[in-house]
Amino acid sequence: MKKTIPTLSEATKIVYRTHYSDTGSAKNFLTAMKHNIQAIGDLPVNQITTPVINKMMDYLLIKLKNSKAVVNTKRGYLKIVLERMIEDGYVKEIKLPKRHKAKKQKVEYLTQDMEEELLGYIRGRSFSSNFDWVKGIEEKEIYIEAFYIISCLIDLGCRVSELLGLEKRYVDFDNNQINFNERKNDNAVAVPMTNRVKEYMNLFCYNKKDFDKVFNLSYDKLNSIWQEAREHLGYKDKKFYTLHLCRHTTASRLVQRGVPLLLVKDWLGHMDIKTTMLYAHLQPKALHSVVEVLN
């Protein structure tokens, strides 16, 4: 064992630099670990025991009113930090408490009508006459790019951070696919392009170098446009109506149209088929074949 033992906040900085810096999960990781430290204090990592982690999970659930699913996620981030400390020789292996049994997540997705109203609103904003003349061209381009990005998210099923971080060199026009090499679970996957994705990729890759990002819009700006549309379309009080809804939409449509769950798993880059099973109830069922008996 080494003599100088890092505190939990110091260990968090180490893991952030090596695992999360410049990734789409960076903000979530830092926020989760901030709450974990708030719950148990900035202890030296060798003082973090199973009872201490139990205390942390209780605090998150009761004091911060986190859902069981969110508590499980924050527990997972702590596990990653502690595993790094074990590798570095600062602590011995720690037995983590069991994850909470969370309620099955309800699947929400965009219907075709919802997609059309969303994209229609954003496209319409790009033609708005309310813009200041000087800023008008810039604002118009921002809304147009948001329109294209959200359309691609609906067809590709990737995470927002994966698309916004996509470089031109990973768009494989010869094989009609996009190679997502840096995914949340390090589970790289090549996703086929629909006709509209291919059209938009051709448009945004034009005249760019291999290491240039395909899109220029930041997550914050894209999300602000989404939230504007959300409020305008009457979904302000619907918690499910976030940018991640596009990923659920892709998965739901694949399953509804008869794509086997194992292929959907690979398409989304899920590490475990259990995650994909969230959409299993959307599969066309054998019961449909006997409905004529009642007709």
Could you characterize the architecture of this molecule?
The protein is mostly helical and 295 residues long. It has 2 domains: 8-87, Orthogonal Bundle (DNA polymerase, domain 1), CATH 1.10.150; 112-282, Intergrase catalytic core (hpI Integrase, Chain A, Orthogonal Bundle), CATH 1.10.443. It contains 12 helices and 3 strands; from the N terminus they run H-H-H-H-H-H-H-E-E-E-H-H-H-H-H. The chain has helices spanning 8-20, 26-40, 50-62, 68-87, 112-126, 133-156, 160-164, 195-205, 219-232, 245-256, 261-268, 273-276, and strands at residues 171-172, 177-180, 189-192. A 3-stranded antiparallel beta sheet has the order 1-2-3. A hairpin with an 8-residue loop joins strand 2 (177-180) and strand 3 (189-192). Helix 10 packs antiparallel against helix 11 (261-268). The longest helix has 24 residues, at 133-156. It is globular, with a radius of gyration of 22 Å. The termini are far apart.
Helical region count? 12
Rg, nearest Å:
22 Å
Percentage of residues assigned to helices? 40-55%
Strand coverage percent? under 5%
CATH architectural arrangement of the largest domain:
Orthogonal Bundle
